[in-house]
Amino acid sequence: MEYINNIIKILQEYWRVFLITGVGYTLLLSFVTVAAGSVLGVFLCLGRMAKFKPLNWVVMAIVEVVRGTPMLLQLYIGYFLVPKMLPFNVPEIVSIGVALVINSACYVSEVFRSGIQAVDRGQTEAARSLGLNGTQTMTKIVLPQAIKNILPALGNEFVTVIKETSMASTFFVGELMTSYLIVKGRTFLTMECLFIVGVLYFALNFVLTRLLGVFERRLKASD
After folding, report:
1. Nearest to 154 by CA among 99, 198, 211, 204
2. Contact of 142 with 123, CB cutoff 8 Å
3. CA–CA gap between residue 124 and residue 114 (Å, rounded)
4. Is the dihedral of CA 197, 199, 200, 201 positive or negative?
5. Cα(56)–Cα(53) distance, rounded to whole angstroms?
6. What is the pTM assigned to this prediction?
7. At what angle do helices 190-222 and 2-15 cross, to 10 degrees?
């Protein structure tokens, strides 16, 4: 009973820290990461599939290094490296966001690549026979079909990124786990704060997963 009373007291006093600051920064980081990562992922994908071998090798090396190293290590590198690369001061959340975007882009690039390769090659041959060049074929024929195929995977990437933003709490950028650290430091109630944060993470991902399920069913119905 005391455990429940503590949770209620924490929510009454610190609900803004959890719901507005924590959830707000978590959703902001996740949305920016997936949106910018998807755009950058398209370019990485095209570079990976390019016939120009040096570009192909460079992109492949970047993707493999990012996918083969821990997220937390990448966040540390972004936190210390990004401010040194820019001639002006940047907020900590920007440095962390850059690292998250690059990480997401490398994973999304492989999703795009599999989506493009899943498009029937006959579509490309038909487009070329009608006089479209390689760029026109990719942008007008292949990519639109590939994007429809990979939208569910992009949704899953959003769910994954929401959970991965918890690592940003190492740098106190304001997301949910940072909210946990702040409130725990003020109340010294560790398990109660963890319970609240766990419920919020679950609620975010549960709602998003259900929405993605509805979206996937509509995509299948439109085929």
Report:
1. 211
2. yes
3. 16
4. positive
5. 5
6. 0.86
7. 70
Are residues 166 and 175 in contact, defined by beta-carbon separation less than 8 angstroms? yes
Closest CA to 3 of 177, 196, 185, 180: 196
Task: Provide the residue-wise pLDDT of the chain in tens; the chain has 223 residues.
Answer: 788 899 889 999 999 999 888 999 999 999 999 999 989 998 998 888 888 888 889 999 999 999 999 999 999 998 888 888 877 788 888 889 999 999 999 999 988 888 878 777 777 777 777 777 767 777 777 777 777 778 778 888 888 899 888 888 888 888 899 999 999 999 999 999 999 999 999 999 999 888 888 877 776 666 5
Domain that holds residue 186: 2-222
Name the domain count of the chain.
Answer: 1
- What's the CATH number where 201 sits? 1.10.3720.10
